């Protein structure tokens, strides 16, 4: 077997409307299909859907703090230039979204934030030219502070 690409991410959320606003209005995902009771699907046009949200209600257990097993974050590519990343940062600031980190990974420049349920989201650009295409080992380069 060979995996061809990561197809989609499914997240459980406490409040579907709150998460729908975050992923749709703040991050700019396009909601697709007819609204389903308790769920919402979003896409960026690459495939049938990249993100599915399923509401589990306010009594659901929160994500445990600290080191734990499970998902660390999802990465969303917002472009190929620092200008596009700066524009994303301006949009986040205008929406009142707080950053939890910013990193230069040699192959990407990344901003980190949390969704309404505490899932970490990375917004990134591939550094041009795409270093990882000619030097795949650069993916494991030491993390540096991001200077936008």
In terms of topology, how is this protein built?
Blueprint: E1 9-13, H1 16-26, E2 30-36, E3 39-43, E4 51-55, E5 73-79, H2 82-94, E6 99-104, E7 108-114, E8 120-126, H3 131-134, E9 144-145
Parallel strand pairs: 1-4, 5-8
Antiparallel strand pairs: 2-3, 3-4, 6-7, 6-9, 7-8
> Which descriptor suits the 3D outline?
globular
User: Which residue ranges are poorly predicted, with pLDDT under 50 across at least 5 consecutive positions?
Assistant: none
Please report the first level of CATH classification, the CATH class of the largest domain: Alpha Beta
CATH fold-level assignment of the largest domain: Signal recognition particle alu RNA binding heterodimer, srp9/1
Mean pLDDT: 95
Based on DSSP secondary structure assignment, what is the total number of beta strands? 9
Give the CA-CA distance, first to last residue. Answer: 40 Å
User: How are helices and strands ordered from N to C?
Assistant: EHEEEEHEEEHE
Strand order of the largest sheet: 5-8-7-6-9
Describe this structure in words.
- It is a single chain.
- The chain has 148 residues and is an alpha+beta fold.
- The chain folds into two domains: 1-58, Roll (2,3-Dihydroxybiphenyl 1,2-Dioxygenase, domain 1), CATH 3.10.180; 72-148, 2-Layer Sandwich (Signal recognition particle alu RNA binding heterodimer, srp9/1), CATH 3.30.720.
- Helix content is 19%, strand content 34%.
- Strands 5-8-7-6-9 form a five-stranded mixed beta sheet.
- The longest helix is centred in the middle third of the chain and has 13 residues, at 82-94.
- The radius of gyration is 16 Å and the shape is globular.
- The model has no long low-confidence stretch (mean pLDDT 95).
